[in-house]
Amino acid sequence: MNTISARLLSVTQETPTVKRFVFAIEGQPYTFLPGQWLDLYAKIEGKQQVGGYSITSAPQPINEQIELAIKASANHPVTRYLHEKAQVGEVFQISEGQGECVYQKEMGKQVVLIAGGIGITPLMSIFRTIRDQISETHAALIYSSASVDEFAFADEIRDSAEKFTHLLSIFTCTDLEADIPAWIHFQERIDGFFLKTLKLPADALYFLCGPSLMLREIEEILLQMGVNPSHIRYEKW
Q: Start and end of every FAD-binding FR-type domain (predicted)?
């Protein structure tokens, strides 16, 4: 696979366990679609290692920069290197965008994004794309986290939903013991009762990303709600 050089521009602590990494694309045009992921190659102790990460930025006519949001992992060598040792100015190799779980405006004008934990990352690219480029599409983002302080992009999501009438955000925390702030709407799991309470449109296009068990459960619930199987999208790893 051909790769492209990407120079690390900045690293920002997004949550206690998630960092944002912004890269400058060097040497040639870079293409991807909202919802895609890439392979990132790093030389660690003299050995080439690879990690796959969802792209959180929205595609632009010319993609001069891309953003990744990566959750810390002591067991994944590339992730651990990025979190602990990567330096601003360092050059990595990346693949072009990969994966078929993507959104394009001709696919439909009602979109529901359901994220669990770090599963927000590919859905953030779709959310930003609809916000900035496709105002005729209505998008609802339902975001679940096990911890109040692990909602990545929370401020941006909330501000966007307040500013743009075609966007809606719903946050739920599954920690039943937590003291939750007012901007978190619910304190429960995303289950059948929860989704039916929201009265979501059966004819919308649904994008899911999160733990595999969560995806299977939500897919089954959506099917029971009458959603067409072809309207339920998620990466099957």
A: 1-104
